[in-house]
Amino acid sequence: MPTRSCHHAHQLDTCAEEPLEALRRRIDRQAGSQTPGTFRPTVRRVVDVDEELVRRLLAAQHPDLAELEVVASGRGWDNAVFRLGPHLAARLPIRQAGADLVAAEVRFLPELATRLPLPIAAPIRTGAPALGYSWPWTIVPWFAGELAFDGRCDLRKAARDLGAFLRAFAVPAPASAPTNAYRGVPLAARDALTRDRIERLDLGSERGAVIRAWDRALAAATFVGEPVWVHGDLHPANIVVRDATVAAIIDFGDLNAGDPAADLAVAWMWFDADARPIFRAACGVADNATWIRAWGNALAHALACLTGPPDDRRVIAMGRRTLAEVLRHPP
What we know:
By secondary structure, this protein is of the alpha+beta class. The protein is built from 13 helices and 12 strands. It folds into 2 domains: 220 residues, Aminoglycoside 3'-phosphotransferase, Chain: A, domain 2 (Alpha-Beta Complex), CATH 3.90.1200; 91 residues, Phosphorylase Kinase, domain 1. A hairpin with a 3-residue loop joins strand 2 and strand 3.
């Protein structure tokens, strides 16, 4: 298969078909609306951090890195990332929910990194609250390349490589592994929140299809095996690509032990109909129930993106694209 674009916002604009195109336009209007009660963001950033704070933290706690150039490189729902020279990055929580996740990353990721076929953003050093900043923070590797959301990638090769990664990663986790209230859990645990999001979104004529899809996913057999490692937020904005292939997996803030179907949702969040079966085979997913739960997790994640911060265009575009794939290509 020829190398193809991974710019998903562009894919939505060019390949969406009615009535999904009409749905996309409604979501765009809703995301831009400031009418009270029409669009209620579910994520609020609590603190602001900047390059000067990072420089001061480095000088106080990691003086051997203090001379590195500090450049703000991105801000997600939980963390802000600053590039430190050519090979490192500082990752600072920007709300309490992000700070609560740092300990698990520090404890478990360095060991996990030693047995995985792709590099991951495992902490190399840690930082402590100081200088008016209230939370622990980390220094991680910086991976050259682009986010899969923005970069070009051979999706068939990516499907094989990411499938092999998940096969190695999704092994039984220790009893001390963290849990997560929303990721890696039975879909029933997300039912109330998902239905609330369906009600809040103007889905137009697709509302019925979304509800039927969610109901079908809920009806799938639940996961009964030993809880495995789950990334918890595996999507194209947390995958780095370089030279049209997967280069690294980043942002393990939602790391937990649970149902592997949570991470398999990336099959609809990134891959197309041609790459999806390649990914499934590479992951070794034989049973249909797991695949249906993965589809349901993708739907839940799409709705979460579409009811997230209205100014985050990348998240909104990822939600649009995922919802379109979920509705067009059910398992």
